[in-house]
Amino acid sequence: MIEKRTLKNGVRVIVKRMEGLLSVTMGVLVGAGGAFETDEEDGISHFIEHVQFKGTKTRTAFEISDAFDSIGAQVNAFTGKDMTCYYAKATTDHAAEAFRLLADLFLHATFPEEELRREKGVILQEIKRAEDTPDDLCLDLLAQAAFGKRNYGRTILGPAENVSGFTREDIFRYKRALYCPQNIVISFAGNISAEEAIALAEEEFSELEAVPYVKRKKEICWQAGRELRTKPVEQVHLAIAFPGIRRYDPRYPAVQVLNGVLGDGMSSRLFKKVREELGLAYSVYSYPSQYEETGALTVYAGVEPENTEEALAAIEEVIRGIREEPITEEEFLRGREQIRAGYIFSQEATSSQMLLYGRNLLYADEVYDLERRMAEISSLKLADVRAAAEENFDFAQAAFAAVGPLEELPRL
Predict the structure, then answer these.
(1) Parts of the chain with a pLDDT under 70
(2) Cβ contact 407:393 at 8 Å
(3) Are residues 138 and 168 in the same domain?
(4) Which pLDDT tens digit goes with each residue over 257-282?
(5) Same structural domain for residues 185 and 322?
(6) Do 326 and 371 have their domain in common?
(7) In angstroms, rounded to a whole number, what is the distance separating the alpha carbons of residues 335 and 265?
(8) Could you tell me which residues come within 8 angstroms of residue 82 by beta carbon, excluding any fewer than 6 positions away?
(9) Is residue 89 part of a domain?
(10) Burial (CB count within 10 angstroms: exposed 0-12, middle 13-18, buried 19+), residue 44
């Protein structure tokens, strides 16, 4: 059972009742992230996500975490390119208490100066850790190579100089612009009735003032750039991105199956060729990304420095082979069944369902339709996936990034 409601101030609420379970996951999703930030704001969405937990009008940071722990609940948050999510998971008998705590930290954060100063140090360490995590760094560089230094090319963390300089006034200014009721979705998934969940949302979030929300425009331009970060690490990390389809494109199921054949799983062509046959990489995979206006299909591998050229040649051979050696009926059927099973498995997890239904309402202002998606997958034909292969993998448009002990970027 799924129910949607819009509060008087514009906050949208969606509830998926999952009877038979003993828990509930609840989330507050905001359409805020790196893609909406200006150069001066770069990193502020993530900064706010951190400091939102550092005390409210009635609770200190410790009291917030202690209150969640005292009822056995879990609480966390994450920031993406175009969404920030605050969420908690609790047993059904403590769902109301957990939601009130989540609402308190979301609505009543006070951002004490001392806590801001401390958390800046934490995030600066997180930025340094990202620099010391070469696979993540490689994918950040790839986003910059694909989209430039703005919008979807921004890192989530932002530059250290920005983080060091953020003020309480910066936080309130950004929140006034993006943390508006019309840009907020509350999502529940688990064993909670729609009546109780909606009543909780109204009780806590009706106080939000119905201020006008103006969605920020994003100028997106695919760069097809090249980025190299020379680092004395043990592996060379390689990543290639091709222009992809945007979110809710009807070709998405075909691209999912295509990605499964290419590099998602141990039966994929990349895994079999680069790892199993040639032994050139422990980690090699691909994945699609979709945004409002655009998307990407990414391939990643970590290899020994002396094997860089050979591994890159093997990866390129597999990618080109997707078009030159058409996907077989066996590969298609296996890929389609994997996608179908993935959707079914996700229906059994409250966290994934909270995010799935909340994100769809935030992005598309629609209730996610599982039956329609399953029908789209079932009706998919081999020709659809082969057509998707023909539409992707233009090396002239590929973005490329590498991190490792290299003096120059390998030729792609």
Answers:
(1) none
(2) no
(3) yes
(4) 999 999 999 999 999 999 999 999 99
(5) no
(6) yes
(7) 10
(8) 31, 32, 33, 34, 35, 36, 291, 292
(9) yes
(10) buried
Q: Active-site positions?
A: 49
Is there a domain that residue 28 lies in? yes
Under 8 Å between Cβ of 221 and 231: no
Order of strands, edge to edge, in the sheet holding 12-17?
A: 2-6, 12-17, 184-190, 23-30, 84-91, 74-79
Strand partners, 188: 15, 26
The SS3 of residue 279 is coil
Which structural domain, as residue segments, surrounds residue 73? Answer: 2-205
pLDDT of amino acid 411 = 87
Q: What is the CA radius of gyration of the chain?
A: 22
What pLDDT digit, counting tens, does each position of 112-163 carry?
A: 999 999 999 999 999 999 999 999 999 999 999 999 999 999 999 999 999 9
Tokens 């009742």 belong to which residue? 17
Contact 241, 298 (CB under 8 A): yes
Question: Measuring CA to CA, which residue among 142, 178, 147, 213 is closest to residue 44?
Answer: 178
DSSP symbols for 188-221: EEES--HHHHHHHHHHHHTTS------PPP----
CA dihedral sign, ordered 39, 237, 120, 67: positive
Q: What is the SS3 string spanning 268-289?
A: CHHHHHHHHHCCCEEEEEEEEE
Q: How far apart are CA 390 and CA 137, in angstroms?
A: 30
Out of 146, 170, 205, a domain closes at 205
Tell me the whole-structure pTM to 2 decimals.
0.95
Q: Of the candidates 56, 318, 96, which has an alpha carbon nearest to the alpha carbon of residue 195?
A: 96
Cα–Cα separations (whole angstroms), residue 331 to 215, 244, 274, 381: 42, 21, 18, 12
